[in-house]
Design brief:
The chain is about 35% helix and about 20% strand. The chain contains eleven helices and seven strands. The chain has a single domain, classed as Rossmann fold. By secondary structure, it is of the alpha/beta class. Strands 3-2-1-4-5-7-6 form a seven-stranded mixed sheet, with helices on both faces. The N terminus is likely disordered. The protein is globular. β1, α3 and β2 form a beta-alpha-beta unit. The structure holds S-adenosylmethionine. The site of S-adenosylmethionine has 22 residues, from loops.
Length: about 280
């Protein structure tokens, strides 16, 4: 499965190509600070007015939540799958003592933006931060290259969770650990995908895929990863996200229907951690 130099890269699904290419989702004011995630709002006062600083803090906190689940990190090599604009990988390198952080993304335009946004850090810490093009389902790295793997709000775009899980198991060294956080359907009820497509344009358009938690955990276990732990963090994500949007987006619009889907019990935000066994 290792991608040889010059091998044909994994095709980018059209909706992903558009959202992170010409549409440049990350430039929308609902995101900020070089991040593109809904945020982890625990500890941010949702009763007072929210500032752009609060919004950036929420997205940093999402990364800190995931990186905390991967501790210890000092001196280790990390891979981020779906690194977007690279702000999370840069923060991970600066704050978590990694020897090396590699941000991988399927979209070449995202990588151009990431390299531009982090040019100072790239030259200040030569060889410590890299950005590489590759797909979650076919990672361009050797076996056992990484001690830690993280993925923040990207797995909803992956087309093949079995392939992602196999690649995660392959690129992690024995004893290595992964943490994946994103939004998933909590159960295996087959009616969920249709309802999500009614509520949320990004599911209707195929940008987001209605992956279920049982599907993800099954893929990880079949790939030989162990210690699968699933934590719902929706209570720390959706009310804050919706509160942030309420000043600029009307109820019943795309981004605000995420809270509705959460309240209907058909979508939640989860953090899933796993290990590659040593034996
Ligand atoms: C919502 S953004 C999240 C970016 C970043 N993790 C953050 O929180 O700021 C999702 C990113 O995943 C990337 N992506 C989508 N499908 C992917 C795949 N199959 N493999 C790797 N990256 C993918 C997109 O190009 C995009 O940059």
């Amino acid at each position: 499965m290792t991608q040889c130099p010059g091998a044909t890269p994994q095709p980018i699904p059209p909706a992903v190509q558009e959202a992170y290419g010409p549409a440049d989702l990350g430039s929308m004011p609902m995101f900020a600070g070089g991040f593109i995630n809904f945020g982890y709002w625990q500890g941010i006062d949702l009763d007072g007015p929210l500032t752009e600083g609060d919004r950036i803090s929420s997205q940093l906190a999402m990364y800190r939540h995931v990186l905390g689940a991967l501790a210890p990190t000092e001196g280790l090599c990390a891979l981020e799958v779906g690194c977007g604009l690279g702000a999370g990988g840069a923060m991970a390198l600066e704050e978590y003592g990694f020897a090396r952080v590699t941000g991988m993304d399927i979209h070449p335009q995202q990588l151009e933006r990431a390299r531009r946004a982090n040019s100072g850090l790239l030259s200040r810490r030569p060889g410590r931060l890299h950005f590489a093009q590759g797909a979650a389902e076919d990672m361009p790295f050797g076996d056992g290259e990484f001690d830690r793997l993280l993925s923040v709000e990207a797995a909803q775009h992956f087309r093949d969770l079995d392939a992602f899980a196999r690649e995660t198991a392959r690129v992690l060294r024995p004893g290595g650990r992964a943490a994946v956080t994103s939004f998933f359907v909590p159960d295996a009820d087959p009616s969920r995908a249709g309802r999500l497509a009614e509520l949320l344009d990004t599911f209707a358009s195929g940008l987001d895929v209605a992956h279920t938690v049982p599907l993800l955990t099954g893929s990880l276990e079949r790939a030989g990863l162990t210690g699968v732990r699933v934590t719902s963090i929706g209570a720390s994500v959706w009310p804050g996200w919706d509160r942030w949007l309420s000043g600029t987006w009307k109820p019943d619009t795309w981004p605000r229907n995420f809270l509705r889907a959460y309240r209907e019990g058909i979508l939640d935000y989860f953090t899933v951690t796993v290990e590659r066994p040593t034996g």
